[in-house]
Amino acid sequence: MNERIIFLGTPEISAHVLEGLVKAGMNIVGVITKEDKVRGRNNKIEESPVALKAHELGLPLHKPHKLNTDFAFIKEKKPDLLLTFAYGQIISDEILALGAYKPLNLHASLLPKYRGAAPIQYALRNGDKETGVSLMEMVHALDAGDVYAVKKLLIDPKDNYTTLADKLSEVSLQLALEALPKYFRGELTPVKQDESKVSYCPTIKKEEEHLNLSLSCEEFINQMRSLSYTPGGYLLRPDGEILKIFTAEKANGEVKAPVGTVVLAKKKQILLQLKDGQVALEELQRPGKKIMKAIDFNNGVHDLEGSVLK
User: Fold this and answer.
1) DSSP code per residue over 227-255
2) Region 288-303 average pLDDT
3) Which one in 1, 169, 189, 199 has a CA-CA gap of 20 to 30 Å to 285?
4) Measured between alpha carbons, how far is 65 from 84 in angstroms, rounded to an integer?
């Protein structure tokens, strides 16, 4: 396939798709990603996963501060198609008109459900049983373009953000490889989104990483899943120390202590009381420590049982 494609993306899930497109013989003539960020305690400057992958693949790369005012790179490449996947900026109509074909976006939800930045997290938080990827026309509005193709995926009850993002990245690649040749041949029919069924999923805010103890066991576990393993949901110990929780499951329906009480912390079990039962906390992490199984956590922390988390 000779059509000239510029790929726009930023996170790891996008990097996987970029690599797969190149290996499949797609003609990627340029890559655009977010600019480098300062991260960590050492203020280290890091490139995005897509930038690193572009270097590895030897692809021309552009990292603009604001693409809408810095897009000469696109003009120079004379693309047939702009293809985005989790790039992270709304793109101007002027840029969207630069390709020979209407620009396309891979979005990790079954549109019009979950327009916005966090569709994977919202699907998990809401306890959805199914999700997928939509290949849609990119327009100067949030995930509002016509949909050309969809690929669905069942959500496993054990999935968290990390595992589901990996699965959806692979589904996105499969969808792109199946649909793009048909798109270039004019064989796909665009379908308008049903505006009456639109829902949104804005970026997860820092305060939303604090797990909500007023939820039911199922809702609490779903919130935790949506944050695992990145960035990790947390509760606060009585002394204010952050306690991150990465995996948990409902243990029973007993209610015998105030919500938030650690009713048991012995051997392999840590049980947390919620309003409709108790959940077993299976993987936990203290600040500066590695993620531990409950048995290892109990071996090192001896004052958790009976404490009330917030």
Assistant:
1) TTTTT-EEEE-TTS-EEEEEEEEEEE---
2) 96
3) 169
4) 17
40 pLDDT more than 90: no
Please give the mean pLDDT across all residues of the chain.
Answer: 96
Buried b (16+ CB within 10 A) or exposed e, 30-53: bbbbbeeeeeeeeeeeebbbbbeb
Does position 41 have pLDDT exceeding 70, yes or no? no
Residue bearing tokens 């990465």: 246
| Residue 243: strand pairing partners | 235
Q: Cα–Cα distance between 294 and 285 in angstroms, integer?
A: 10
111 and 134 in contact (C-beta within 8 Å)?
Answer: yes
> Whose CA is closest to 10, among 71, 67, 79?
67
pLDDT score, position 39: 74
Tell which residue, 296, 271, 276, 277, has the closest CA to residue 286. 296
- Which residues, in sequence order, are bridge partners of residue 28? 5
Which of helix, strand or coil describes residue 139?
A: coil
CB atoms within 10 A of CB 214: 10
**Confidence band (pLDDT; 50, 70, 90) for 196?**
very high
What pLDDT, on the 0 to 100 scale, is given for residue 38? Answer: 83
Separation CA 249–CA 233 (nearest Å): 15
* Strand 147-154 versus strand 130-137 pairing type: antiparallel
Instruction: State mean pLDDT over 284-291.
Output: 96
* Residue position matching structure tokens 């699907």: 123
What amino acid is encoded at 4 in this protein?
A: R
- The three-class DSSP label of residue 261 is strand
CB 3 within 8 A of CB 81: yes
The sign of the torsion formed by the CA atoms of 180, 182, 185, 188 equals negative
> In which region does residue 86 sit, left (phi positive, over 0), alpha (psi from -120 to 50) or beta (all else)?
left
* Mean local confidence (pLDDT), 139-161: 96
